[in-house]
Amino acid sequence: MEEPISKRPRLDDAEQTAADHQQQPKKQQHVQPEQHEQPGPDMQGLFQIPAGLQREPSPGAMHGCRIAAWALQDAPESSVYCSAIATGSRVYWSQVSALQQNAKPEQGKEGILLPVRLQAQPVLHLQQLTHAGEVQALALHQCVVQQADGQGQQSPQLLLASVDAYGAGSIVRMQLDLQDQCSEAAAAAAAAAAAAAAGTPALLAQLRFSPQDSCREGGWAGACFSSSSSSSGSDAGLLLATARGFARDVSLYDVETGGLIRTYSTSLNPYALRFLPPGLAGTEGQLLAVAESHMVSLWDARAAGAAGGCVQRLATATVGQPLYALDWCGAQGGLLGSAGAERSLFLTEPRKWKLLSKWGGATRLAIHSLSFLQSDPRYAVLAGLDLEVLCGRWDKPGSNARAFQTSAAAAAEDGEAAAAVKVTAAAAAAPGAPGSGDRTRGAAAAAAAGDGGASVEGGAAAGAAAGVSFRGDARWLGVSKAAGVDVLAGFAASGNLVYARMR
């Protein structure tokens, strides 16, 4: 007996639209024309040297950064790579001449670069820097001071700040006796002398500082210098900001005297801090960004009071996913980048204080180190809890697929795979699938995936925009980028140092 029409299952409008679309002949897939992109960053040098420590490095905080990098900016061909590292309560200084490190990196699986293993002088122990607890953070700042001979000559000096787990630390002024290596002829003649002089920095002055209540429970601590507002480049008005995770406070110190200026109390546990550049909304370099759990807050260093300095607060990441790294991006007039446990990179507009862009799933594990390239701020350098350091474009996350391969074939293959995944996801969200929200929207998505889901960008354009990645031999205890130049320094748990220079 034939079933009455009223009892037959009736297709709704969304299902009928999807069924009619499957019966229609497929339209010709449109491929976007190739776009000529600027070439991605090129790895000029990548090498690994043993630090020469007598014992294994201490573990420290999970998201701590116990390395600070510095490099010459005037002569990139004959520059010197410097870094300060910390393990336990000791601070060490490492300096390597780049003239002897011209070996090309090796390429491993999936296009990941492997540093070349080289030998160098062991690191120098800075005995003047003593701490009661484990050193959690290091910060370097370059300042130019006029000499007293009256000839107008200037000698570069570095300020090194170290903070232990209790928030106490030291500020040391160092002077590096570097040889004149601007010319290639002089560089070849003075390579050995420069390397020997580089290993022994002269400590000119030292200041100690401590918070108001130094008897708190030890834990993570961070430190950063403000940008100098003086036109001469001296450290007049320079500030040092420190943060303590368990104490939930941020302290400001005067670099010239080492005195405590004021202390702010944060609402949540701080995990990272970064001074914004001067000239932003007339702040003259006195605006401090603090990562409080999943939020980013802005503090005016000129305002007094325990909580009077907070001017803005924005919930950037998901609740329960802390932000472990902050850095300033020079693209689009200046953006504030943040990353953390969510494995995503967030770009915030500091003037309008809103989230501008997000690069989701950038790394495999949580991100604890973030920096942007000086040559092209569209590229971000990320390091997490694994062995890899990734460099990719945050404005085009699709070009960074498959471990940042740079071949056009891999980019085209990834585009086809992404199109297939898109069609499958749209079919899963079609009417009748569990967990789908709007039935009409799901059918429309399935229809749209059949038409334009396979359209991908040109393979050459994606290949040119892709970044690079390299891998160490152990978990990173910190990855730092030198100010003003694209030189990276990484400190691994194996006790090795990795230096990388990109262009």
From TrEMBL:
Extract the ranges annotated as region (Disordered). Answer: 1-46
The parts of the chain that form a coiled coil are: none
- Write the protein's name: Uncharacterized protein
Where are stretches of biased composition, namely Low complexity?
21-32
Q: Which PANTHER family match?
A: OS01G0867200 PROTEIN, WD40 REPEAT-CONTAINING PROTEIN
Q: Which organism is it from?
A: Tetradesmus obliquus
- Composition bias, Basic and acidic residues: 1-13
The residues the entry assigns to the signal sequence are none
* Source organism superkingdom: Eukaryota
